[in-house]
Every structure is written in C-alpha cells, then in structure tokens.
Amino acid sequence: MKRARVVVDGAIHEAVKHGEQLQLPSGRIVATKEVQWLPPVVPGTVFALGLNYADHAKELAFQAPEEPLVFLKGPNTFIGHHGKTVRPDEAEHMHYECELAVIIGKQGKNIPRSKAYEYIAGYTIANDYAIRDYLENYYRPNLRVKSRDTCTPIGPYLVDASDIPDPMNLTLKTTVNGTVTQTGTTKDMVFSVPVLIEYLSSFMTLNKNDIILTGTPEGLAKVYEGDHVITEIEGLGQLHNTIISDHLER
Amino acid sequence: MVNAYGRIQGTAQVQNLWLQSSSYTGIFATTTAPLDCPVEGCVYGTALNYQGELTKLGPKLHEKPYLAPPNAPILYIKPKNTFIAHETPIPFPEDSDYLEVGAALGVVFKEHVTNVSVEEAWDTILGFTIVNDLCIPHDNIHRPAVKYNARDGYCPVGPWIVDRDDAPNPDQVVIRVYVNDELQQTGHTKQLVRNVRQLISDVSAFLSFNPGDVLLVGTPENRPLIQHGDTVSIEIEGIGKLTNTTVSLKEGVR
Predict the structure, then answer these.
(1) Residue A57: beta bridge partners?
(2) Which keywords, in A-to-Z order, does the entry hold (chain B) (predicted)?
(3) Residue A70 is nearest to which of B44, B82, B144, comparing CB atoms?
(4) Which residues of chain A form beta strands (DSSP E)?
C-alpha cells in the first residue's frame, strides 16, 4: 500500500494510491493534480546520515566514517511532493541529495539488527538539500546548512515495508530539468538500515513516525532558481521539487 | 503573584499557574500536585553563546578541526525522548562516569516565528523556562553529538514557564547550579554573545519556530560534572528552580 497525506478541498486526508489516482477515506477517487501533497507522516525525531555512501564521502574528500555520522533535523524543514524549496540568491553551493527515508512504525530501544525490520512502518524518498556556503566546523553539518525552512522535501508516499522486500537493493536517481545527474544503489550504504536502527536505539528510544534519512550516493550538482528536481527510488516513486528564489521573502 | 504556565500531572493541557514564592495554584489542583514537562515542541540548543566559552577555547577556535571562530549561531536539537519533568529521575549512563550539566535559560515561543527583526523578536515570546541540557562529556563539538546529548532523559525542563511580562530581563539574570545542595556554578546572561532578541532574530532568518518550540540561549563555561546518585538543581532568578536526581538505568527508568 502507498499512503499519502494530502489536502483536498481545504481538509487534510489520509489517502491511498489507487491506480494513477488517489482514494480518500470516504471512498472518493481524486486525480493527483487536484491535491496538495504534505509529508506522508507528521515527522517525529528526524535523523540524517552524513557520508553514508563511500563514493559520496570520497567525492567530498572524506574517508567514510567508522561510526555513523548522525545529525538531527527540525520540523520546520519538511515540505511535501511538488513543493517549492527556497534558495537564497547569495548561495553558490546548493546541492540536492536523494535519500532513502525509513519511517519507524513502533517504539523501541536496544533493537538488535536482526529484529530491526520489525520496527519499520515503511519507506519514502527525501531530498536532503544542503547549502554548503553556510558550512562551519561546529556540529558540522550545522543546522543553517541542513535544517533550513523548506529544504527537505519528503514523499510522495509512505510505501508499506511489506511492499519493499529488500530496501538494501534499490536504485536511486536524481534528474535536474530532465537530465540525470545522480545514480546509485542502496547496496552501497556504509551503514545499512538495520545497523542504523541498532545503533540509534542502543542509546535512545525510537518512536513511531521517527524518520531516518540514510544518506546520499555520489553525484552532486548545483541547483538554481527555477530548476525542477526529481529524486526517485525504485519502488517508491518520484519526488518532485522546484527551486525558487528568496527574493520574494525579503 | 507571577503568571506562569505548566502541566499538572494527569492533565493533558498546559494551564495557567499563579506562583507565590515556591508554591503555585492551578485551576484544577492544589499546591502539591506534581508537574509534568511543560513543553512539547522542538527544543533547539545553542552552543558557544557565552563569552566565557569562546575565551576558554581561545586559539583553538583557529586550529583544527574548527579553523575559524563561529559565524552563525551554532544550533543542535534535543529530541522528544530527552524531555523529562522537574523532580523526575535522570537515567545515568552505563558507559560514562560523569554527566555534564548545561544550565540553560529556555525561551518558549507563543507563535510561528519566521525572519523576525531584533525589535520584533520580543513579541514572539510566550515566556521563559529552565532547561538542564545534559550531555556525556566529549572532546570537541566538530561533529553533531547526538550520541552524547540526545539520550533518553537528557533534557529536564521546568518546573514551569514564567510569562514574559512577569519574568526578569532575560539578558540580566543570574543562573546557579547546585549539586547535592552545594553551589557549583554561577553564570550570568549578560555574558551572552548574542542576547535573547539577537539570537531569535538571527536563527529565525533560516529556521522557523512553531508555537511551543524552545530556544536555549546557551550554557555558561565550566559546566559542572555530576555522578550517579547526585541531585542537581538549576536556579534562575525570577524563573524558579529545576531539580532532578540521577539514577542507574538498571533501576528501570523508561
């Protein structure tokens, strides 16, 4: 099942994918172009991984870390499918990052990797934009780079875990204005999804709707005002996003 | 009497409390009912926002791994699993002999805050609370410290939120930390690098706050260390006193 949170006629609905359309809880079928997409769940605590693909770490001139490089993102940063992400005009180095997002389904602590999949509700796509102009070496990557308003599109669907038999073997792809700029496979993660769940839950309690963004593979490219960015993961669909300037907000 | 906001144990909603010295009166409760954690939003911590912390680092700010002094506010998130109430136990870790006490004044927002000026910042504040921003001691703050500062129970908050209009000037308050009733640290918010209004303005330029979110203004240098069994209190003049005791994880806390 593919589940979405959408706004239709002024109300929020928990919809499910129905062919190429969406079905609302009332049974009503709506075309996807009639809806506004929200993040597929209201995010709880959101973890993100730095340098979790060896090729990407190399691209940024880092060795892959020996322990997961985890940071947290605030609720302000998330937007839905077909949303608009604000790019400061002054920025030079704004990059997309296509990432497998793991949505936790129930509370757990000290979860062994062998039982990790029991705690996963499903998967979605995140585009974990970074504005590297603002990198500083304190709690790097700092929140000004990674937790900006509108800079983490997520969706379109929460795809049930049972529909994704092997999340560690999915292809990822990013296109900018129709040109493929990033490809990879979740096989290349340094720390796999079960290892990340074991690691995080070894020192803190995970809760339903907590989300783990598992890092991005090689293939960075700069994005500019007006760019149409599609992040795509096998079996999960395509997450569309458009870059807008911040000049309207000043 | 001072107007404050708190959550009386067993009631879901934050309600008005009227404080009289160390006791309070609520709508539904007598003065003895225990209080739950008064906040539910996102708690953002700020690092290196006391002059003394920067002074202590001195030339290290220019060396590896930092290479340059900080420019923008340095933030981190204390997630929901870390929140605990006044007078509830702090789970003491099994892999460290000490916890570090971060005595923080917390600014609680009453509305959505985006890109506000220094002048506008004051009007976004609901009130002020006390936060014990606990962490396991670690060498540096080059990388995010989730494993050290986001464990269950590492963010005691409370006992309540004092209304902005009944609180002292947040840039002129004394903060005292007591461990087992002995004074271990004294800080003063006049030493902030960015004062409260400036910090709100600078952060809200890139990160919006929601109503109920909390921004910690920082923690003074020379953070006290506590051990298993210690009782720690943070007292902020005009706000109150937040007290918690550490217990072993094996004693069955959460």
Answers:
(1) none
(2) Isomerase, Lyase, Metal-binding
(3) B144
(4) 2-8, 11-18, 21-23, 29-30, 36-38, 46-50, 69-73, 78-79, 83-87, 94-95, 98-104, 120-127, 130-131, 152-160, 171-176, 179-185, 211-213, 228-233, 237-245
Q: How many CA atoms lie within 13 A of A146 on its CB side?
A: 27
Question: A123 touching B, CB under 8 A?
Answer: no
Instruction: Mark yes or no for CB contact B207/A138 under 8 Å.
Output: no
Between chains, do A76 and B142 touch, taking CB under 8 Å as contact?
no
- Please tell me whether the interface predicted TM-score (ipTM) of this complex is above 0.85: yes
B contact test, residue of A47, A107, A137 with most B CBs within 10 A: A137
CATH assignment at residue A14: 2.30.30.370
Contacts of B159 (CB under 8 A, 6+ apart): B6, B35, B38, B85, B86, B87, B130, B240, B241, B242
Residue with tokens 């880092």: A62
Residue-level pLDDT, tens digit, chain B, 254 residues: 788 999 888 777 888 887 765 555 554 444 567 889 999 999 999 999 999 999 999 999 999 999 999 999 999 999 999 999 999 999 999 999 999 999 999 999 999 999 999 999 999 999 999 999 999 999 889 999 999 999 999 999 999 999 999 999 999 999 999 999 999 999 999 999 999 999 999 999 999 999 999 999 999 999 999 999 999 999 998 899 999 999 987 654 44
Answer yes or no: do B206 and A138 touch at CB < 8 A.
no
B66 in contact with A, Cβ within 8 Å: yes
A150 and A211 within one domain: yes
Using the Cβ of A63 and the Cβ atoms of chain B, whether some distance falls under 8 Å is answered with no
Cα B111 to Cα A39, B118, B126, B159, B170: the distances in Å are 22, 16, 8, 21, 19
Contact B129, B35 (CB under 8 A): no
Tell me, what DSSP letter sits at residue B180? T
Task: Tell me how far CA of residue A131 lies from CA of A94, B136, B185, B204, in angstroms.
Answer: 4, 30, 38, 17
Contacts (Cβ under 8 Å, ≥6 apart) of A111: A119, A197, A198, A201, A206
Put simply, whether A143 touches B (Cβ < 8 Å) is yes
Q: What is the pTM of this model?
A: 0.95
Q: What is the CATH number of the domain that holds A58?
A: 3.90.850.10
Q: Which pLDDT score, from 0 to 100, does residue B28 have?
A: 44
Structural domain for A64, as ranges: 41-249
Residues B92 and B227: their CA atoms lie apart, in Å, by 8
Q: Which residues of chain A have pLDDT under 70?
A: 57, 61, 249-250
Which tokens in the block code for residue A53? 């693909």
Domains of chain B from N-terminus onward? 36-251 (3.90.850.10)
Count of domains for chain A: 2
Q: How close, in Å, is residue B147 to chain A by CA atoms?
A: 7
CA–CA gap between residue A110 and residue A183 (Å, rounded): 34
